[in-house]
User: What shape does this take?
Amino acid sequence: MEIFTIPHEGRHILYFPFRNAVFAGNAALVNLARRAQQGQASAVRQLRDMLGDKLWIDDPRETALRSRALPEPFRPTSISLLLTDDCTLRCRYCYADGGKSRQAISWDTVAGVIDVIFANAAAIGCEDVAVNFHGGDVGAVWPLFVRTRGYMRDKEKSLGIRAATSVGTNGVLDDAQRLWLTENIDSATLSVDGPPAIHDSARAFPDGSPSSNFVLKTMQHFDRVKFPYGIRSTVTGENVSRMDECVGYICANSAAKRIQMEPMYPQGRAANGNVSPPSARAFIDNFRTARKVASSFGRRLCYSGARLDVLTNVFCRACGDSCVVTPSGDITSCYEVADAANPLAGVFFYGRYDPKTRTFVLDRDRRERLFGLSVLEKPECSDCFCKWHCAGDCPAKALLSERAEIDNLPDRCLINRELTRDQLVAALGVAAEVDSSILGTAVSPR
Ligand code: SF4
Ligand code: SF4
Ligand code: SF4
Assistant: This one.
């Protein structure tokens, strides 16, 4: 059984990830847990008597997560479609350098990949396909976006297969576009950084003019029609000390239940030195303050690397499970690595759509290597209590860090551990209110 011990305020947290249980204990309990983990029968008996039999019931997820196998044949029914790398904005920290190239995907490729996923669904008897539209931004190729959705509707009708659609957008839309989006797309992630002064300092139009007014109107429209959406904010070294203000502004102007804040990463346009990431320490401290603000509005503030509610062996679907079609028709598993010139293209690009054969042509070796980007292949994560939640962190950012070509990287492990520990402590706090046993008590963090 895997038990992690985490020092906390002079005591220890004992965490059993596959038993959904967390305890507060003293040094003697930690010692006992270590001996039990080494297989000492008397320690196991004693621990079992103290913590309860429930902890010794096997969780089938544990076996499933301890291995990974490449699924064959590869028949995706879910894709991300990057219609363009053009964008209506020129955000200072853009990882994609959106708008630098203005390439749009060809119609043959759009129609072809949609045909493929619907055909895959029909072949395996699946009633749904899923398409996520990502950027650049759909606002830069609006007629193509509308045409693509129309093509999917025709396929839905003719095949009786439903398409679930989502979009990541900067929210720079006019009234007609807002209305169309909420009537034709199922959900969205909207990028908003905070009050106009903060948002506009990073997220401006090519001529430098502000975008916040457009985004505010988009939020208002989404709320008016009760459209499901979440908010994503990027935190820089400049705005990190104002995260609480940013969350307060978002909560006061949007009904989105989920707000995700991520530290900026110095890549793409952000690598030119015009904007810096926050330090890990500053991000953690200010996230904690901002989280309280979100709670006071009944909202949830999230960060991708802290997720006690998820048990997994991969950080994201880029580890071989996702299918992202780029504007040039290549297939990548990471939507942040969408350009053949990206230094990580050799890792994440694993095929392309071939318009002649109207099929995906795949590189099996690359797919196998992508499957290896799981926490199972990361010995440096083996003793980390976040192992089955963070699962080795964002593979793209971890690989960039390993290459050490970028200075000034935020220490994501520190952020992931501190904010995950907060979630464990919160779980214990809830338990303490209902049970004040000497050792703390088992609770369900999920
Ligand atoms: S961050 Fe998004 S909205 Fe901003 S320039 Fe890049 S692609 Fe466009
Ligand atoms: S590898 Fe990182 S950047 Fe790429 S999709 Fe996954 S989380 Fe996003
Ligand atoms: S926090 Fe760091 S060490 Fe821990 S699982 Fe994540 S990447 Fe690995």
Remarks:
- The chain has two domains: 4-66+372-434, 78-364.
- Residues 380-381, 384, 386-387, 390, 392-393, 413, 416-417 surround iron/sulfur cluster (ligand 3) (CB under 6 Å).
- Residues 18 and 60 are 9 Å apart (CA to CA).
